[in-house]
Amino acid sequence: MRSKYGKTFKFYIGLDMNVMLCEPARIDQIFNSTVIINKSKYYDMLKPWLGDGLLISGGKKWKQRRKLITPSFHFKILENFVNVFNSAGGVLIDQLSKEVGKESVDIYEILNLYTLDVICETAMGVQINAQTEKFTPYATAVRKFCEMVVYRVFHPLGWNDTVFRMFSSEYKSYNESVTLLHDVTRKVIKTRKALYANQASDNNREDDFGRKKTFALLDLLLTTADAKDLTDEDIEEEINTFIFEGHDTTSAALAFILYELSKNSSVQSKLYEEIIEHFGHTMTSNLTIKDISDLKYLDMVCKEGLRMYPSVPFVMRKVEEEFVLDGITIPRDTILTVLIFMLHYDPDIYPNPEEFIPERFSVENQMKRGPYDYVPFSAGARNCVGQKFAIYEIKTTIIKIIQKFEVLPAPDYKKVLGFMAVLKPKNGVEVRLKLRDNEHGIGSN
Predict the structure, then answer these.
(1) What per-residue confidence (pLDDT) applies to 283?
(2) Rounded to two decimals, what is the model's pTM?
(3) Is the pLDDT of residue 333 over 80?
(4) Is the pLDDT of residue 440 over 80?
(5) Would you say 336 and 317 are in contact if contact means Cβ atoms under 8 Å apart?
(6) How many of the other CB atoms lie within 10 Å of CB of 129?
(7) Helix (H), strand (E), coil (C) string for 178-227
(8) pLDDT tens across 208-228, in order?
(9) DSSP 8-state symbol, 40
């Protein structure tokens, strides 16, 4: 449709008019609008799990929650989160080591459990051991819910809550998943509140082995003065939103970046050389934000990966009052959709957009582009509050994997993109893994 109608076009889904945008100048006007701020009704499909948390809420509530959540991604707290990336990343390397020498491995499935471990510990301060215990009930419930969001958007039986409940064969398992997700979060909140009630200082919080527990988003919501008026339901909304936004998005991005590295051996070699130059051949178990930030080529690799595979391929806003966009009158109740995926594949901005070329994001090349030519985390007031968290997690994980393994293409695998609340591989992401020789960096079986 973009090829036929240009970078701004409209079509109807049922009775709903959608205006699709993938032109930077117009995207700028949407993202920086103080009027086009609320999400479209399609986000309501997420409410059974996320409630009215930061992703979905609008107006005064959104502004209050945004102000409250932003400090959780302060530098010092992110350093604490990087410790979780390191510990869960060690488990990830152990899991990947079991796949060395196989004809192919679906790395997305393994990474998906890894990011679930990370997000649950950083959001709730609990370890669910999804990597070692595989498909725990919680991990299975998360996956089922995400599948059903897409089902409900595209299947007539899912559009109306009553119709879905009465006539869809999917409702029972869906409802069981939602119930389990809420039960787990509520139990953790109750336990954490009791912990604070019984201990005078956060500095005294230790686990059964005498180790200081991870400071999680939940701790911020329970202890900061600005959050004193939050109910348990309010806290649950934000914890579940954080888990939803930081789980599949990161695992898909990681898997796609590794897939591109497997196909582009010269890029992988250059990245490996940068990693070895900084850390040597010994596996690095305690990366810091400074370590991560020093790797300039890694930064380019990650940015190019997120250009080609933006985890959120589009965002949708509701026009609540008539709006004029470059002289075009957009009627009330129109849905404005920013096509991030199509923007990132615009050959006018990125020549040969299907090719993986990290050098597009050298300082010199970035200076040639506009601020709205690249928006993998959205932009403006409603940009992704956790984008630094995601970038640090992606970079930490890539360092550990590339330092340990050579990632090679899997025979006969052809990537198929899909959408399940986020941009995901429809058929997994298959690669081959070889151990690197510690002294010479040579792949070995």
Answers:
(1) 73
(2) 0.91
(3) yes
(4) no
(5) yes
(6) 16
(7) HHHHHHHHHHHHHHHHHHHHHCCCHHHCECCCCCECCCCHHHHHHHCHHH
(8) 434 345 678 898 888 887 778
(9) P
Beta-sheet pairing, 335-338 with 16-21? parallel
Rounded alpha-carbon distances, angstroms, from residue 107 to 92, 96, 176, 179: 11, 8, 28, 29
| Residue type for position 217 | L
Tokens at residue 377, please? 């985390």
Mean per-residue pLDDT over the chain, rounded: 90
Q: Which burial class, exposed, middle or buried, applies to 72 when counting CB atoms under 10 A from its CB (0-12, 13-18, 19+)?
A: buried
The answer to whether 339 and 7 are in contact (CB under 8 A) is: no
> What architecture does CATH give domain 1-31+313-375?
2-Layer Sandwich (3.30)
Question: At which residue do the structure tokens 């205006």 appear?
Answer: 19
CB atoms within 10 A of CB 151: 17
Structure tokens given for 242: 């954080």
- Coil, strand or helix: which one is 86? helix
Give me the pLDDT at residue 442, please: 44
Q: What is the mean pLDDT of residues 189-205?
A: 71
C-alpha distance from residue 341 to each of 2, 97, 202, 227, 345 (Å): 12, 33, 43, 36, 7
Q: Kindly report the CATH number that applies to the domain delimited by 43-308+384-444.
A: 1.10.630.10
Cα torsion 423, 424, 426, 432 to 10°: value is 140
Give the separation between CA 235 and CA 191, rounded to whole angstroms. 13
DSSP 177: H
Domain range list for the chain: 1-31+313-375, 43-308+384-444
Q: Name the H helices within 200-350.
A: 217-223, 232-246, 248-263, 265-279, 289-293, 296-308, 340-344
Question: Residue 61's closest CA among 44, 41, 38, 30?
Answer: 38
Q: Which DSSP category does 12 fall into?
A: E
370 φ/ψ angles, rounded to the nearest 5 degrees:
-85, 170
pLDDT at 201: 47
Percent of the chain with pLDDT over 70: 94
Please, which residues have CB within 8 angstroms of residue 5's CB and are 6 or more apart in sequence?
Answer: none
Taking residues 164-179, report their average pLDDT.
94
Find where tokens 């299975």 sit: 140
Question: How much is the pLDDT for 438?
Answer: 62
Amino acid at 372: Y
Rounded to whole angstroms, how far apart are CA atoms 39 and 318? Answer: 6
**In the block, residue with structure tokens 């992988």:** 268
Give the tens place of pLDDT for each residue, 357-386: 999 999 999 999 999 999 999 999 899 999
| 141/242 Cα distance (integer angstroms) | 16
- Answer whether 423's CB lies under 8 Å from 309's CB: yes
